[in-house]
Amino acid sequence: MTVSAQKIPSQIEGFCRLCSEALAGMDSDEARIRYTRDMLPRLLLDKSLFTRLLQDALAGSGYPDIKRPTVFDNEVPLYVDRQGVFSLRMYLWGPGEFTAPHDHSSWGVIGSPSDGYEVINYRREDDGTREGYARIVPVGNFLLKAGETAHTYPFDEGIHKTGNPTEGTILSLNMYGRPAPRGFVYGFDEANHRAYKILPPRRKKEQLMREALRFLK
Ligand SMILES: [Fe+2]
């Protein structure tokens, strides 16, 4: 794994070992999602695990690593499988905080150890051929209870927005499969029919540097 091997709770280590072996042998996203939805509640229902993760992070123990740049600023990487089969990430949600609608470049299974994590799924209605344009409509939402999960598919089949409609601060635990080699996710502006690329921090800096170089000439 690529995050610090120190102080990883044994529950996460054991869970990820099982998932690594099982998921690598599966041949469809449906099977991987089914398995992960069956497994993830084992961690989600272990509140002492999340208490420890938060306390360790706040104590600066090095795991979880909150210094590492991530695509989303509320994201904390917990585990990245050595073979790239999956990654496990924690997200923090203040009261009323939601993502913009976005897609993913892999399948995903998401849930929370607390009640109230909300998932709103969208359907894309245009054919995706116009760069920067997208028409999406909400098709359903789930308000998850502690330990419940939802899932997502890669690209247009998995456009969703997630967040926290409650008055407390909650966290979610999200497991994602092997990402397709696209290198970014799409964010969507539902009202203005816009699709925009969300790049990882390093790629974003590199892209802006390339553009800035052009303008320096
Ligand atoms: Fe998402």
Can you put this structure into words, describing what you see?
By secondary structure, the protein is of the alpha+beta class. The protein has a single domain (10-216), classed as Jelly Rolls (Sandwich). The protein has five helices and ten strands; from the N terminus they run H-H-H-H-E-E-E-E-E-E-E-E-E-E-H. The protein has helices at residues 10-24, 29-39, 41-44, 47-58, 201-216; strands spanning 75-80, 86-93, 108-111, 117-124, 136-144, 149-152, 160-163, 170-177, 185-189, 194-198. The strands form three sheets. A five-stranded antiparallel β-sheet has the order 1-2-8-3-6, covered by helices on one side. The protein is globular, with a radius of gyration of 18 Å. The model has no long low-confidence stretch (mean pLDDT 95). Fe (ii) ion is lined by residues 102, 104, 160, 162.
> What ligands are attached or bound here?
fe (ii) ion
How much of the sequence lies in strands comes to 25-35%
Q: Average pLDDT, to the nearest integer?
A: 95
Helix/strand-derived category reads: alpha+beta
Low-confidence stretches: none
Work out the helicity level: 25-40%
CATH superfamily: Jelly Rolls
Anisotropy-based shape: globular
Calculate the terminal CA-CA distance, rounded to whole Å. 42 Å
Tell me the number of helical segments per DSSP (H or I, 4 or more residues long). 5
Strand order of the largest sheet: 1-2-8-3-6
